[in-house]
Amino acid sequence: xxxxxxxxxxxxxxAPETMQRLPRSFFARPTLEVARDLLGRRLVRxxxxxxxxxxxxxxxxxxxxxxxxxxxAVGRTPRNAVMYGPPGYAYxxxxxxxxxxxxxxxxxxxxxxxILIRALEPEEGLDWIARRRRGIPMRDWLRGPGxxxxxxxxxxxxxxxxxxxxxARLWLEAGEPVPEEQVATSPRxxxxxxxxxxxxxxxxxxxxxxxxxx
Length: 214
Fold this sequence. Notes:
Layout: H1 24-27, H2 31-38, E1 42-47, E2 50-63, E3 90-95, E4 99-105, E5 113-124, H3 126-132, H4 145-152, E6 170-173, E7 183-186, H5 195-199, E8 203-206
């Protein structure tokens, strides 16, 4: 039976109370707290004067140089420098020679931590996203980190983008926070590294949501 809680549809406009941009203080907290709190928030990209957005339904946390699944495990490099802060910036990288992935930087400046946006529920600009995801079912448009970036047109030029700047073209909004009973956790998906890296329950997602990638 279809779970009607998770119908995907475009509303005329988000409720004003859900459109407040998340401040830098939201991201300048322990990463696992931020990761859980990101569920239900809205990721928005401006294309011209048009909003393209999705509700966050799945994330993964990467914390510190001792996290063998993190890009920071090798220490600071030109590639991962954005992970070292300040918080509230976008860390975008290219993977497998074909996909971009979006992360949001967390915690204090100088400490490498970020949260991978793994999946969104499409909200605004559905026709715009559909043209970029032609031939793919709607539930799969933004279902996976590479698809998030493909669907919203997020590329390398957004690496180091200040998500909290007043003139940001990519940002996060309050959205509708998810009740605790709807939140699930698991080990991160397809990560490499030691036993801790492969087993830490640092993936957070909305339970039973059709757009979750795992």
